[in-house]
Fold each of these.
Amino acid sequence: MRDVIITGIGQTPVGELWDKSLRHLGHDAVVAAMQDAGIEQADALYVGNMLSGELSGQEHLATLIADFVGLRGIEAAKIEAACASGAAAVRAGIMAVASGMADVVIAAGVEKMTDTLPEDTTAGLALAADQEYEVAEGATFLALNAMLMQRYMHEYGVAKRDFAPFPVNAHANAQGNPNAMFRMAISAEKYERAPLVAPPINVMDSSPICDGAAAVVLVSGERASAFGQGKRGVRVAATAAATDTLAVHDRRDPLWLEAAYLSSRRAFAQAGLSPDDIDLFELHDAFSIMSVLALEACGFAERGRGVELGASGAITLGGRLPITTMGGLKARGHPVGATGVYQIVEIVQQLRGEAGANQLAHAHVGMAQNIGGSGATILTHILAGA
Amino acid sequence: MRDVIITGIGQTPVGELWDKSLRHLGHDAVVAAMQDAGIEQADALYVGNMLSGELSGQEHLATLIADFVGLRGIEAAKIEAACASGAAAVRAGIMAVASGMADVVIAAGVEKMTDTLPEDTTAGLALAADQEYEVAEGATFLALNAMLMQRYMHEYGVAKRDFAPFPVNAHANAQGNPNAMFRMAISAEKYERAPLVAPPINVMDSSPICDGAAAVVLVSGERASAFGQGKRGVRVAATAAATDTLAVHDRRDPLWLEAAYLSSRRAFAQAGLSPDDIDLFELHDAFSIMSVLALEACGFAERGRGVELGASGAITLGGRLPITTMGGLKARGHPVGATGVYQIVEIVQQLRGEAGANQLAHAHVGMAQNIGGSGATILTHILAGA
């Protein structure tokens, strides 16, 4: 298997981008990544996206973006794995390069969620749950996560306020990210007083509906060296994917993210690393409870003790295991099919030393984890300085 | 790059399968392929599908099918490239095995199109065209193909009746395929008198709206040998993908399928073969005009002379270049995201000598070509006896 190096990154700001259509967002991120990598052509474009058909009336999205960017003739495909679509597109790109079928691949993620009515967007997001056995009963992702959070508080005797450090950290970090949607700090008090959406989840537990696009350029190790890109390049040390039952009620233990456990274990094995080797972790904080469950399933905390990592300060920029260093899903924003690519882009920024005000002192190995549905599809990537 | 061998195939009948839901169709094809390959577990499942979100209210489809089949923990992703989604899923599976990231992969295609109102299904299919510049002007795929056919007849002085051999051949071959939707022969006279849908396209030029699913098991060469599956296995000799502009009006020459030319040229180069080496060609006869344009772009006929291959009898089971040997999109049926996988499954049947009444005397090398949109995304695969 050939080495795969990330030589270019691109992203649009995240927000309610009403002046940009789906294809324009994709274009902007792809062109930025190509310029960053210094390339004018590629062999393939994989686009992570969940809802282009439902919300923008457009399937065949990858070919459209390739066409719109002017990448005539190249391979193109859209990859869909609900909110994990972005990381799945990156993984497809890694496989194309690793297999030798391509030398230069662009993996992008794009989502347009704010041109539709909020109830239509919410209904679209519910397509990631089991249509016949969850959605038909009225379940939304908010409801499913609320039940998980309630159960967690009950099982482990944890209070609502114990979750505060996660959104507080995300918002603190978003202040230093010019592409983040919510660039303002919040206090623990503000978190506790935020309006409830589905008890115990409040507004500050919840990532926003938004638009955005991000992209990376993936090249073979030989190609990166030949083009003198080894120095700025970031190496893909591991890529892994795993699934669980689609419906939460089918799981033996709803508080255990089996797919996070499986994919992180596979990734650690590939990279020859353990949780202690990870300098930063871009995790999938779609809701606060997901951050806690992911930290436990990946081996960063004992079961029932994930919240303690928050209380200890370990998750902040100066801590032992910084998470959501550029704002995370909560404050950078969660344009669903793009999120997994934003995570990778932000780790590259940290590993290159280009994270600006949020630059970590020690950033040599970063881990990204992208979750689809309520933990049904989970991809874990580990990146390291080349 | 490692050798990739197809060791199992599965398919459901194609038709209006109102007693089977999307997940049941996917289940049936995947389980049949696993039984054929003699496996009980796999590393990944890639599912080609275009319209599950729009027509069945279900995204996150690959994980759902993995869950429903009982393939707990494996990787899963849905691949979307409009009507070329099936071949794109097979290509993703080939890359996973070729790269060494997986040893055993299932690539499936599934589509459920008949549980919705015909106008909703037609609107869904139009999502493969350019939403802002084609669909907004009222274009459907039928309309776009009608314009291509009209232009072809005008440019080359070809008559409507010259297209008859293509649907006549497809229907003749479907008689011998128990999974085909339309298992009845049609005459050239019946073709000429068929009701017009969008002049000059009539009902007999058009593939049907239908349901179906197909799957293949892909394993590494070493694994196939170790399991004694080398003998029945079929080798992937080439896989290639290419794109063109999404909108037909953006092409310099609308009668030239550039992406068919590019992907077939790349496939021939990979396999070290030329058009003369191909024993059968499963082409994408969504409309009769597409068969003719594909034969020309892939080098089987001169420009403007594709119809002559039909008139000569070369395309029949006993001819020099048999096409649509199990009925093609026209008569086996065209469940869009599944079609590309059906094509591969049918070539494996021919190469194994398991094509029943339709078995070719010489079937050592087969080519499949799957088209998304009006030629915007085209994948070409070449398979050979292992």
Note: Chain A touches chain B through 64 residues (CB under 8 Å).
Amino acid sequence: MIERLAIIGVGLIGGSLARALRAAGAVGDIVGCGRALPNLERALALGVIDRFTQNPAEAVANADMIFIAVPLGAMRGVFDAIAGRLQPEAIVTDGGSVKGSVVLDAVAAFGHIPPRLVPGHPIAGTEHSGVEAALANLYQQRRVIVTPLPETDPVALARVQMMWERCGAEVTQMSVAHHDEVLAATSHLPHLLAFGLVDTLARLRENDEVFQYAAGGFRDFSRIASSNPVMWRDICLANRAAVSTMLARFGAEMTDLADSIRRADGEHLLDIFTRAKAARDRYVDGTKDETA
Amino acid sequence: MIERLAIIGVGLIGGSLARALRAAGAVGDIVGCGRALPNLERALALGVIDRFTQNPAEAVANADMIFIAVPLGAMRGVFDAIAGRLQPEAIVTDGGSVKGSVVLDAVAAFGHIPPRLVPGHPIAGTEHSGVEAALANLYQQRRVIVTPLPETDPVALARVQMMWERCGAEVTQMSVAHHDEVLAATSHLPHLLAFGLVDTLARLRENDEVFQYAAGGFRDFSRIASSNPVMWRDICLANRAAVSTMLARFGAEMTDLADSIRRADGEHLLDIFTRAKAARDRYVDGTKDETA
């Protein structure tokens, strides 16, 4: 049971955690904190939070659990604002899409790795954003990755894990570096390809015509190119090393495909397409239960 | 009104044309032709066709309209089988995803460009295939591109155009080369990226784990990697020149993105992502009516 929860950044991710914990009866008082006053007023009116402040230091003053759900580029500022203002027993966790940069930001602000910081990442979201899109069931049957460090207090880790389980999520642990590699492959690279594809087409001389003839497959494929540009700039910068490695691997694959097409090597093309289809079909079957 | 329609290749595309024309009362007798006997028997049982033969020459013998909907790699064989067997007034059209190779195959089989050949391409499909997936409304409010040549008989062109309009489609004309460029950009390149991405992930050492953490965005993005590998091998080989050009353009875009990430140029990344999001949002808004 969390007595006082502070949510820094009351959008889809932070608001959904508040709603889920409330629905589970797992939280007492919820204070919201953010920069935009109208958003905080809306969150209060919707009953997502009990009260709000625009000052992070004030938000965390009496909290036993703090959840930070701001864009990666704003993490450092939040850590700076709350360092030295926490209760001794307070646990801090976050929802950032990259974990290495969050840990570095915390070290820069606190001067060391805070033992009661539990870096985390709920693998959930919808194409909508903002507190109005927050859902009590957003995390049900979704994965949450926590990336504890050697310095992490096991009690703090257990409490964060329990918090997510009360929201219906399945929690798994991995190292910070491994998290950032896995997400570079499954999320960051696909987003870069979608942005890159749509921009390539937009730059063609006949771009209006081209988009007219793009059918259903293209619509699905390019959906993630409608994601928030600022958030994705921050992710690319925060996860530079792992994203660069994945871009190089993908580049080698596409060079191989382009060479096969140039030399009309149908056998090699068929091998690649068949292997990709098998992986995709196996993967979709294997995770059917998560798509509902 | 078509008196005798011959459909060579009775799958999703061919079967849906038969169903749509029947529903519109725009066709008399429909003969199906294909290599797999069980599929033809199923098409007959479903009422998609009135009778069938496995011999293309026999199928076209009395037909006034012939629709060829076989994989691109099988086009040449069909043209060889029907050359010299057509009624003088018979019109031939097709549903191939690449038009340059279809015209070359026809020239190779007929010895010249048949004036009553109208190359065409319905921009439609579902993730399913086969005659059981055929729908009378598959082409409603979808685009069909016809690519007449200087040699094409205007009466034949008008009749093919009318046939598709009776199915509820919107028909547009473009040159063979332009069609192949537009489709390389909007369909062939995205499919190659999806195959390439899924194969890149499948080849990672920890591929099982990676796919476990792939969330909703990845599922949408990679759906087209479940497409038929043989069909896509044929398309890549048939449209080598235009696909190679688009792969090179996309490669340059990704090199630019990778360089920006390496040198942490957030401003340039934001420019690209913002332009891509604007194009995607404009495109989705602009074609809302087609997605229903």
Note: Residues 287-292 of chain A have pLDDT under 50 and may be disordered.
